[in-house]
Write a structure and sequence with these properties.
This protein is of the alpha/beta class and about 450 residues long. The protein folds into 2 domains: about 160 residues, Rossmann fold (3-Layer(aba) Sandwich), CATH 3.40.50; about 190 residues, Alpha Horseshoe (Serine Threonine Protein Phosphatase 5, Tetratricopeptide repeat), CATH 1.25.40. Strands 4-1-5-6-7 form a 5-stranded parallel beta sheet, sandwiched between helices. Strands 2-3 form a two-stranded antiparallel sheet.
Length: about 450
């Protein structure tokens, strides 16, 4: 792995020489050069310190982007520097894990709020430089390696129940939560109604993508998704800044685009690597389930029954894992029970899972925050239950909440698979065809 391909580790610490609590000066640049930077590199990461990337203008924008987007971070809490603590608070609010803390023993007294957190102490000599850095470097390296698979280290994620929201929702709320040019936002919204060429024309005006605001780039990325421009999405990721391209959301949507572009094996690699690094989520596993489902259908059409059965089982397992990761997200759950219905013979586990999926989606809708996928889930459950009246009501709700054509196409495809399976078993299913037609319209 080349240095440019390594995950980024952002370093939060004072610069230059600063006085400690006891009055002695601490040479933070030496601490960085001799202790922190080499430990990060030995862990297979690329160190990035704020002063190393000042490219003009105020430092706040790149600082916030690195705090939010860098895969790992190291914070030196020595002297209780106000800037470092502010940045640490931002980091803990947006990243559940992969933030390592350290401090100079005797150089500071950790404030009450962070004293219980697991931090690594290091020793300083009379000149304010690290003493015997080797064992501390080894400890930092080991902790960063463990952070790839370790549990939550952010106290916010540990203590605040329900924080953050369902993983699947992050792509849908991103545009509303990120502050960026209102003019660009409005133009992209108009372009999505006009088609891919209109979106591409706006992208051409941007010039170098890496120099654009992250919010603008993500809205452009999701705008291509809205018009099913999968190759454009794939190309755009390659031109994003490395921290933005490496975010979970971008990698998930890249996998979705790769799969829709017929590159299922590439999509699978992206998702399995993401799960290995970040752990499973309802969204990551849901997209992986779709990858296996597409490969199952292709193998079944080719008459390769053994491979088809294997991919179907992998798809069911991926969807189930996604649902079990976050029971609030009914989307992977309904896909799991739908595929269980398509199994030959139907998988009996679906009878246990269906009530849980129904409860999850009913809670979402009752909470007053339903989206298209909630109504689509209710629609699929009604079809599975052969309740055509409820299916008709859910269809109307789904159409009213639909935002992008590919969403309805996904639901229509699932209903088609259910219909074809039932037709194969000699059961009446013409009414499902009518719902498919309604979705495509």
């Amino acid at each position: 792995m080349t240095q440019s391909q390594r995950p980024l580790c952002f370093v939060l610490m004072p610069f230059g020489r600063k006085p400690a609590v006891v009055g002695a000066l601490i040479d933070f640049d030496s601490v960085y050069r001799e202790l922190i930077s080499p430990a990060i590199e030995e862990a297979g990461l690329e160190p990035l310190r704020a002063d190393e990337e000042m490219t003009g203008g105020i430092i706040h924008k790149p600082m916030f982007e690195r705090l939010i987007l860098c895969e790992f971070a190291v914070a030196d809490l020595t002297t209780a520097n106000a800037n470092v603590f502010y940045e640490l608070g931002v980091r803990h609010a947006v990243r559940p894990w992969s933030t390592l803390l350290l401090f100079a023993a005797g150089g500071t007294q950790l404030p009450f709020d962070v004293a219980p957190l697991r931090a690594i102490p290091y020793q300083l000599g009379a000149q304010g430089t690290p003493v015997d850095p080797s064992p501390i470097k080894a400890a930092i390296k080991q902790r960063l390696v463990e952070a790839r698979t370790a549990g939550t280290d952010s106290p916010i994620f540990q203590l605040v129940e329900g924080f953050p929201d369902i993983q699947r929702l992050k792509t849908d709320v991103f545009r509303d939560r990120v502050a960026y040019s209102q003019r660009i936002k409005e133009r992209l919204a108009t372009a999505r109604r006009q088609g891919m060429e209109a979106i591409r024309a706006i992208e051409t005006e941007f010039g170098e993508i890496a120099s654009q605001e992250s919010g603008v780039v993500i809205d452009l990325f999701l705008s291509y998704r809205a018009v099913s421009a999968w190759e454009a999405m794939i190309d755009l990721v390659a031109r994003m800044t490395p921290p933005l391209a490496a975010t979970v959301m971008v990698q998930e949507q890249l996998a979705l685009a790769l799969n829709r572009a017929g590159r299922g094996e590439d999509a699978e690699r992206v998702l399995t690597d993401l799960i290995e690094k970040r752990g499973p989520s309802s969204e990551t596993c849901g997209i992986l389930g779709r990858v296996y489902k597409d490969r199952w259908e292709a193998a079944a059409k080719a008459g390769d029954r053994p491979r088809a059965r294997g991919f179907l089982e992998k798809a069911i397992d991926a969807y189930r894992r996604g649902f079990e990761t976050d029971w609030r997200d009914a989307y992977p759950g309904v896909n799991a029970v739908t595929l269980m219905e398509l199994n030959e013979p139907p998988d009996p586990r679906r009878e246990q899972l269906i009530p849980v999926v129904r409860y999850a989606v009913d809670r979402r809708i009752a909470a007053g925050k339903p989206d298209y996928w909630d109504y689509a889930t209710r629609l699929e459950l009604a079809v599975l239950a052969e309740d055509d009246d409820e299916a008709g009501r859910a269809l109307g709700d789904a159409l009213a909440a639909s935002r992008e054509l590919w969403e309805r196409e996904t639901t229509s495809r699932n209903l088609r698979l259910i219909r074809e399976a039932r037709e194969h078993r000699g059961r009446r299913s013409d009414w499902i065809k009518e719902i498919e037609t309604g979705l495509s319209g």
